[in-house]
Specification:
Blueprint (H helix, E strand, L loop, with lengths): L4 H6 L6 E3 L2 E3 L2 H11 L2 H4 L4 H14 L11 H12 L2 H36 L16 E6 H12 L19 H10 L2 H19 L5 E8 L14 H6 L6 E5 L11 E7 L14 H8 L17 E6 L5 E4 L6 E5 L15 E6 L11 H15 L5 H8 L44 H8 L13 E4 L11 H14 L4 E5 L9 H9 L11 H10 L1
Parallel strand pairs: 5-12, 6-10, 6-11, 11-12
Antiparallel strand pairs: 1-2, 3-4, 4-7, 7-10, 8-9
Length: about 525
């Protein structure tokens, strides 16, 4: 076990230790956890105040006392469990949920061992074990939902070492700041963020889910690499003759409420999760609250560079909500009825791409337009279509592929006048998966006899990425995402405007632009010009 390179990379951030050939909690931790697992009659823990004292004792047993928690964390735990929860809810939490979580922590080392024993055999030729997925290294990690539950329980008990996380550009992972912010702000949105997390724990303690979730770092190499899509230069975009994909405008609805399989865009911070475990409560943070399994990626995924994106497949949704930002409210249980793929992941795909922040007028400069379009393209592209992309960026047209909508069913789009997608060229086996990573490598490994994990016609579901607090121009960001999705050979974009005034004529403009057939990076103001023409 101790010889595993993947385990060695993550072990300093886990809190458990290697003893002989097995993983274990340090011995001083075990008896206190056993006492908590037997309920308040044995542990004496019946309040948030006593819970935090127990957390402090556990951290002392792990020699984490020198890594100070947020100053107001103790007050936050006490405020939530002793004042904000009803007596009935609090009693149930300490009598049923907390003991179950302690039991899950006791199982944590064996869950890790099981994970590593099976990681090498999960998918032939794909490394899937839990490890630090460093920047500029494409890779994928598969975690069982039970292991994720144990990891998030470690976060709740603040048991993860934090001393070296900054040096690795890793986001925060313990929940002390979440509870500290509750106390410091006395803000309803913070209370409701925690309610989502608490509801998740209640759900998994009553019925542990049995699926898998994958976390993948996608990279566009800055230098030429064989069989890889590299970071396109401005000249490459200007030469592209890729037809625009279909564009659907939605004035209502939410990205996360898609009924069909799709690639759903997370308007991310470069640190995955953004302010999810602090005061943040906009698109990304809300997503992490209603799909708490996403938080697990914050443990091992360092910040994204300009040429990177993070893809998560399979996270289960546990909560309903209303509102946004300060009006965000937990609205009860959500039963996720998504189908699962053959490997056990829910058919939910989320792509995290981080936009530039606070650019003002600089966002219109070519270098920053290039950065944003390549960031979106990194999120949307299929590595398996590398050769097609290379031809398209050289201006060779649709490289012999036929136009095809690629979407079947009763609600499919008319072949003649609506969807513009490119059918993938016939697959030619070269006996290697070199240059193809993560989800698509898995799909290729199943190609001879099983289903593929990467649906080649996933639509992109997005909205005002990089706008709002980040200050991006909605018209420019819309154009950029449209270009990137088209170049990535996605069949169409499903775009949610969220009522932004600047996009009130978006459906008319996109319809007119589609008649132009192609757009290039050399024409970044096309939507603005289109809007002016429409308004005349």
């Amino acid at each position: 076990m101790e010889k595993r390179e993947d385990l060695r990379s993550i072990l300093p951030y886990l809190g458990v230790v290697v003893e002989g050939s097995s993983l274990q909690w340090p011995s001083p931790v075990i008896e206190p956890l056993k006492a908590i697992s037997r309920g308040p009659g044995h542990s004496g823990i019946q309040s948030g105040e006593l819970l935090f004292l127990a957390i402090s004792d556990l951290r002392h047993s792990l020699s984490l006392s020198s890594q100070r928690l947020s100053a107001s964390a103790s007050h936050g735990y006490a405020l939530f469990f002793d004042e904000l929860l009803s007596t009935v809810e609090s009693t149930k939490w300490f009598a049923e949920v907390l003991p179950a979580l302690a039991n899950l922590l006791l199982l944590f080392p064996s869950l890790l061992e099981f994970h590593y024993r099976n990681a090498d055999a999960l998918i032939d030729g794909v490394q899937t074990g839990l490890r630090i997925l460093n920047s500029q290294q494409s890779g994928i990690v598969f975690l069982s939902q039970e292991l994720i539950g144990a990891l998030l329980t470690c976060s709740f008990f603040c048991l993860f070492p934090t001393s070296n996380r900054d040096a690795k550009h890793l986001p925060m992972i313990n929940f002390d700041h979440l509870f500290s912010c509750l106390y410091e702000t006395n803000d309803e949105k913070m209370e409701n963020k925690i309610k989502c997390i608490i509801h998740y724990f209640e759900r998994i303690c009553s019925h542990m889910p049995t699926g898998l979730v994958s976390f993948e770092r996608k990279v566009l190499p800055l230098e030429d690499v064989a069989l890889c899509v590299t970071y396109p230069k401005a000249d490459s975009w200007s030469k592209s003759a890729t037809p625009l994909c279909h564009f659907e405008v939605h004035r209502s609805g939410l990205i996360e409420d898609q009924s069909k399989e799709a690639l759903e865009v997370d308007f991310a911070n470069r640190y995955l999760g953004g302010g999810a475990l602090r005061r943040g409560c906009v698109q990304e943070e809300i997503r992490f609250m209603i799909n708490p399994e996403l938080i697990a990626g914050m443990l091992f995924l360092p910040s994204m560079a300009d040429n990177e994106a993070i893809k998560v497949v399979g996270p289960e949704r546990f909560s309903n909500y209303t509102g946004y930002a300060s009006s965000f409210r937990f609205a009860g249980d959500y039963v996720d009825k998504r189908d699962v793929d053959f490997i056990g992941r829910r058919k939910k795909k989320i792509i995290a791409i981080d936009a530039l922040c606070g650019m003002g007028m600089r966002q219109y400069r070519l270098e920053y337009l290039l950065r944003e379009i390549n960031k979106a393209f990194c999120g949307f592209f299929y590595q398996s279509k590398c050769q097609q992309y290379q031809r398209l960026f050289k201006g060779d047209g649709p490289c012999g592929a036929q136009l095809d909508q690629g979407i079947q069913g009763s609600d499919s789009i008319s072949r003649s006048n609506r969807s513009v997608g490119l059918q993938e060229a016939p697959y030619v086996s070269v006996g290697t998966n070199e240059g193809i990573h993560g989800d698509e490598q898995i799909g290729n490994s199943e190609e001879k006899g099983g289903p593929s994990l990467e649906h080649q016609y996933d639509v992109v579901v997005t909205g005002n990425w990089g706008c709002g607090a980040f200050g991006g121009d909605p018209e420019i960001k819309t154009t950029i995402q449209w270009l990137a999705a088209s170049q990535a050979l996605r069949p169409f974009i499903s775009y949610h405007t969220f009522g932004v005034e600047a996009l009130k004529t978006l459906d008319e403009v996109t319809s007119k632009c589609c008649s132009m057939d192609t757009l290039t990076l050399a024409k970044p103001q096309v939507l603005k010009k289109g809007r002016r023409r429409i308004s005349k």
